[in-house]
Prior knowledge:
Number of strands of chain B: 15
Helix content of chain B: 25-40%
Bound molecules: flavin-adenine dinucleotide, adenosine monophosphate
Structural class of chain B: alpha/beta
CATH superfamily of chain B: HUPs
Largest interface: A-B, 101 and 88 residues
Strand order of the largest sheet of chain A: 7-11-6-1-4-5-12
Order of helices and strands of chain B: EEEEEHEHEHEHEEEEHEHEEH
Strand order of the largest sheet of chain B: 11-10-9-12-8-1-6-7-13
Order of helices and strands of chain A: EEEHEHEHEHEEEEEEEEHEHEHEEH
CATH class of chain B: Alpha Beta
Distance between the termini of chain B: 54 Å
Low-confidence stretches of chain A: none
Radius of gyration of chain A: 22 Å
Low-confidence stretches of chain B: none
Largest sheet of chain A: 7 strands, parallel
Oligomer: heterodimer
Amino acid sequence: MKTLVYIDHFKGDVQPASWEALGLAKSFGTAVAVVFGSGVDEVAKAAAEFGADEVLVADDSSLADYHAETYASTLSALASSHSPDLILFPTTARTREMSAMAAVDLNTGVLTDLIQLEASGDSFIATRPIYEGKVLEKTTCSAKPVMATIRGRAFPKPDREAGKSGKITKVEAKGEAKSTVEGYSASESAVNLGDASVIVSGGRGVSNNPVLTPPAGMDEKQAEVWRAQQGFALITDLAQLLGGAVGASRAAVDGGYITYAHQVGQTGKVVAPDLYIACGISGAIQHLVGMRNAKVIVAINKDADAPIFKQARYGVVGDLFAIVPALTEAMKKKLGK
Amino acid sequence: MKIIACIKQVPDSEAKVKAEGGQVSWGDAPLVINPFDEYAVEGALQQKEAHNATVTALCIGPESAKEALKHALAMGADEAVLVSDPALENIDTVGAAKVLAAAIQKIGGADMVTFGRQTLDNGAGLTPAQTARVLAWPMLGWVGNIKVDGGSVQVERVLEEGRQIVKANLPAVLSVVQSIGEPRYPSFMGIRKASKANIPVWSLSDLGIPAPAAVVTRSELINPPVQETAIEMITGETPAEIAEKLADKIIAEKVL
Ligand SMILES: Cc1cc2nc3c(=O)[nH]c(=O)nc-3n(C[C@H](O)[C@H](O)[C@H](O)COP(=O)(O)OP(=O)(O)OC[C@H]3O[C@@H](n4cnc5c(N)ncnc54)[C@H](O)[C@@H]3O)c2cc1C
Ligand SMILES: Nc1ncnc2c1ncn2[C@@H]1O[C@H](COP(=O)(O)O)[C@@H](O)[C@H]1O
C-alpha cells in the first residue's frame, strides 16, 4: 500500500497529528509525506526524521498563504501522478477544506475525524464518531484514493530520529487562488486544543469574584470582563505548569472573556485530553459532548448540584479563585517545578 | 443581492441517540435545524439588513425537513426550497454538494451561499468546500464577520491561529461560525408567516441531474462503551489542604 501523508502546518508550525498520520501510514506500507508552503525545508526535514520514505515538497511563493483552491489543486495533481491507495491528513479546518475539494477533483470521498483505520483487502475500514460521539460508525470509501483525516491523539506518535535524512523531491504548485489574505486582525498565539494532553478550562464562573475590585471608570460589563481575565490568568498559570492548553465554555466566549478558538463543546472543539480540569463550568450537554472522552475529568464548582460532577472523576465544591491557585502551588511543589 | 443559506435538519442535541437494529434512533426527540446552520442563516440575514438582500433557505432532506426550513423563514428568510427525492437517502457529501450546486443554479444563482461549519449528525464539515469546488466559486471557511462592498466580500476567518482577514470576489461560498453573533429568535410575525409559507419541493428530475452515486458508505453502527465514572469528592478545611489531596490524586492517575 502507498500512502500520501499531508503534513499540515501554519507558517512552519506543524500540527502534531500530522506525525501520527505518518506513523499510521507506515503501518500500511510506503509513507510519502507531502509538504506545501514557501520556505518549508525545516518541515520537510522533520518529515524525514519522523520516518517518511520520501518527502514531496511544493515550495512556492503562491503557497506562502494557505488557499483552499491552490492547496487542493496541488494535492489533486500529486494524487494523479503518484496513484496512492490512501491520502492521510490530520483533522484541521484547513485539511477538511482541501481534502473536500481534492475529493471532488479525484471523484472520490473523504472519511473525516477518524479514531481507527484498518486495511481491508485493497481498501480500508474507518471508525468515526457521529452524532457528537453518541454513536460510532464504520465506514468505507469505494473509490481510490481513499482520503481520510485522523483525529488528534487517536493514533500513536512515531519516534523522531534526529538527523535521519530522506529522499526529498520537489514538485510543482498548481491552481489559482480565488481569494487574497489581507492580514491578521489580532496576533494570537495558536490554540492547539486538539493536540493538548492537558486542558484547563474556564466557564462563566471565572468572572464571579466580587472581592476583586476593577480599576475605576469601568462600566459593569467591562468590570465583568476584567474579573474574568483575572480568573483566566489563574487558569492559564495552572495550564502552563501542566504543559497544557486553555479551554473555555461557550458562556465564557460569549461573555467576551476569551476567544472562540478556545471553546470546547458542540459548536466549539471536541477534545480528548488525558486530563481535563473544568473550572466554573456547569456542565451543559453541549459542553459535555466536547470533553467527556477525556481520560480523567476534574471539576471545580461552587455548586454541589452542578451537572459537571456527574461526568467527573474528581470533584471539588468550592470557589475556583481559591482552589485553582492553591492547586497550582501544590502541583509546583509535587512536580518539583 | 441574493443569498442562499444551506441548512440541514438533525436530531436535537439533547436527544438520546443510539444504534438500534443497524439504524440510528433518537426516540421521540424533536428534529431541529442543525445548530451550526443557524449561524449560516444569521450571517445571511445580517447581509439582508445591510444590503437589502433576499435570503433563500435551501435544504436536501425528507418532507419533514420543511420544519427546519420554516425555522429559517421564521428567523427572517424570504423563501425556502426543499430538495427531496428517495434516491437521495444515502448520498455522501460530494453527492450533496452536486445536488446543492444544481439547486443553486435552478434558483437562479446567488451572490453568496452560506453554510454551517458542519452537521451535528454526520459531522463531516466537507459539503461547503465541495459545493464551492463544484461551482468553481471562492471558498471562505469559518467566517465570523462578513462585509460586502460592491462585487467583493471581506471576511474574518476565525482560525486556531487567530483571525485572518480574507477578501474575494462574489459570488462566493462561506461557512459561518458562532462569532457571527447569536442567531436571532423567530419573531411572532415570522412564525406566523412561516406557518403559511408554501415551500416548493424539487426532485432530481426537476433539477435535471442523475442520482449521485455514493462512494462513502456506512457498514456498521456501534454504541460506544458506557464509561462508568464514580466521582470522588475532595474535601478539606482549607483550599491548600484540598489542593494538596487533589494534586496527589491527579499525580496517581499518571496522566501528566
Ligand atoms: C446550539 C448550542 C450550541 C452550544 N455549544 C456550546 C459549546 O460548544 N460549548 C459550550 O460550553 N456550551 C455550548 N452551548 C451552551 C451551553 O448550553 C451552556 O449554556 C454553556 O456551556 C454554559 O457555560 P458555563 O458552564 O460556563 O456557564 P453556566 O452554566 O452559567 O455555569 C457557570 C458555573 O460556574 C459556577 N461558578 C460560579 N462562580 C464560581 C466560582 N467563583 N467558583 C467556582 N464555580 C463557580 C456556577 O456554580 C455554575 O455551575 C451551546 C448551546 C446551544 C443552544
Ligand atoms: N442535506 C443538506 N441540505 C442542505 N445543506 C446541507 C445538507 N447537508 C449539509 N449541508 C450544509 O453543509 C454543511 C456541512 O455539512 P457536512 O459536510 O455534512 O458536515 C452544513 O452545516 C450545511 O450548511
